[in-house]
Amino acid sequence: MSLSKSLLPKMLTLVVLGLAISLGWFAWEYYTRTPWTRDARVRADVVTLSAEVGGRITELPIHDNQLVSKGDLLLQIDPARYELAVLHAQRAVEVARAALGQSQASIVANRALLKQRRSEEQRRQQLKSRSAISAEEWEKSSTDVAVAAANLLREESNLGLAQANVQLAEAALRQARLDLERTRVTAPVTGYVTNLLTRQGDFAQSGSPLLALVDRDSFYVSGYFEETKLPRIRIGSRARIALMSGEELEGTVESIAYAITDRENLPGNRLLANVNPSYTWVKLAQRIPVRLRLAARPDGASPLRAGTTATVTVHD
Predict the structure, then answer these.
(1) Helix pair 135-181, 80-129: axis angle to 10 deg
(2) Nearest 10 degrees: CA dihedral of 135, 136, 141, 143?
(3) 73, 167, 180, 232 from 275: Cα distances, Å
(4) How far is Cα 159 from Cα 59, in angstroms, rounded to an integer?
(5) Residues forming beta bridges with residue 248, ordered by sequence position
(6) Alpha-carbon distance 116 to 145, whole Å?
(7) What is the pLDDT of residues 279-304, one digit of tens each?
(8) How far is the C-alpha of 99 from the C-alpha of 16, rounded, in Å?
(9) Is the pTM for the entire model greater than 0.85?
(10) How confident is the model over 230-278, as pLDDT tens digits?
């Protein structure tokens, strides 16, 4: 009886020690092999909007962090100058078309005149064969035919130029109308206005960024997994995503990056390999980006914020 009492504490100690070793082993395996990471970020596509034409901003019907729908007006640039450009282009088209009409009418008149001169030449040739007119009069009719033909050729050449002028004027009108349309900057996607620094009355330079729009339907998670854990990650694998705010999401592995920057081997002189002469014996596992597609979320769920941190666990 006393022997069993003396062995009981030792047995309990051995059991607790074995259990601790087992738990430690499983914890080590989970930490080193299970595909999980605390280094993950919520990402989203950001559309940077710029003015395609320059001018004073006369309307800015949005505010910072506002949700806008695709096609909503974001800002209006003063259209007065571009409206005048459209009117000027319209008048230029009218003038070019009028010149084209005159050229076409002149060609018709010159063709009729050439026909008349040729008819007169034929009649005088018959009269000359009967010696009814002099050779000088017949030569004059031939000269009139040549002059009429030259005039017709010149007018046909002018017709091509007039047609080209009409095409150029119409192209300028289309450009003027396009510039007028571009004074209205609309939302290309449904999303959130973020970090709005532009103000009504500012002068918008063509090509200069004016505002950023976070695409509401483009949120995803980018997790950085150690290379030792990649063998257990497959495209299409399910993943559990825990945001630092406490919300949990579901997702699937969409893609795995194929390359990262090698900071130890930057290009050297004449594009030769620049190998670091020192070598550290303790090598840390590199982290590879893994893109995760988020599952559909229920209506009324709190909106995601790009840049927030998360913990990702991938299920085999």
Answers:
(1) 170
(2) 120
(3) 54, 61, 56, 32
(4) 46
(5) 242
(6) 9
(7) 666 677 889 999 999 998 888 888 89
(8) 104
(9) no
(10) 888 999 999 999 999 889 999 999 999 999 887 777 776 777 777 777 7
CB of 185 closer than 8 Å to CB of 210: yes
Smallest Cα–Cα separation from 121: which of 93, 149, 136, 142? Answer: 142
Region of poorest pLDDT, from 60-69, 70-79, 157-166, 299-308:
157-166
Q: Which residue has the tokens 């941190």?
A: 309
61 membership: H or E segment, kind and range: none
Among 185, 196, 197, 188, smallest CA distance to 79 is for 185
**What sign has the CA pseudo-torsion 57, 62, 64, 70?**
negative
CA count, 13 A, side-chain hemisphere, 144? 17
The residue written with tokens 């078309």 in the block is 97
Three-state DSSP class for 7? helix
**CA dist., res. 223 & res. 215, Å (int):** 20
Tokens of 227: 């290379």
Cβ atoms < 10 Å from Cβ of 213: 22
| Count of beta carbons in the 10 Å neighbourhood of residue 110 | 19
- Asked if 162 and 103 count as a contact pair (C-beta separation under 8 A), the reply is yes
